[in-house]
Each structure stands twice: as C-alpha cells, then as structure tokens.
Amino acid sequence: MPDHRHAALVVDDHDDFREVIEILVSSTGLDVATAHTGAEALAHLRREPHRWCLVLMDWWLPDMTGEEFRRQQRAEPRIAGICVAVVTADARARGPARRLGIEHFLLKPVDTDVVLEILSHHCAGSAPTATGS
Fold first, then answer.
1. Gap between the Cα atoms of 89 and 110, Å rounded
2. Superfamily of domain 7-122
3. What is the pTM of this model?
C-alpha cells in the first residue's frame, strides 16, 4: 500500500500555542488537525493511520503524559511508526522522551525554523523552509 502521510497532528491543551503551531503547519501546505488530549490524539491516529507524518505534542496533557501516549502508540503496530515530536516547557521530560524513542524534543518557546525543518524532514509535500540553498 502506498504511503500517503500528508498531515500533522498538533496536540496541546493550551489553545493559543496549539493555534500558532496549527497555522505554522498549515503554512507549509500540509493538512493539520488538532487535539486537546492524548486520548483524542490516539483516536485520530487510529482512525486514519496512514494519514499522519508527524505528531507535535505537549508532554503534559490533561489526561496523560507524553510517556503514556508514546507507550500506547508503540503498542499498536498500525500507529507505532508515526514520528512524535515533543514540544514542552519541561526540560525534565527530555530523558524519558529519548528512552521512548521520541526523535525530536523542543523546549517552549520553540524556534519556528526548527519546527519547519522537522516537518520538511518527515512530511512529504511540506514546503521547504525559507532558508536559502
């Protein structure tokens, strides 16, 4: 089956931050969806496992931590391989995130160029960043 990963999922319970990242992702030409909780994010992934190229998520969600989310995600083969990038203000989460195979760990406030680079690397169809070649 061909890979159609062309959307990013932004998971954060803070409306302002989630909306800013949603606008940034959509500016690349990718589809973007948002979730407020880990359960809602997992439901998005399970419904359309081949849609997602990246999950950008806060470590501390109302219903679970990034660690709990990643454990549940990795337990399901259909969604286990979807890349997760953690975006948090809590530097203490870096160690657990690495142990769980999370490839990208960003501290808030995030550098938008770094987010664009991660999107470009993981998501087919995202526009290149504004940096020159």
1. 9
2. Response regulator (3.40.50.2300)
3. 0.89
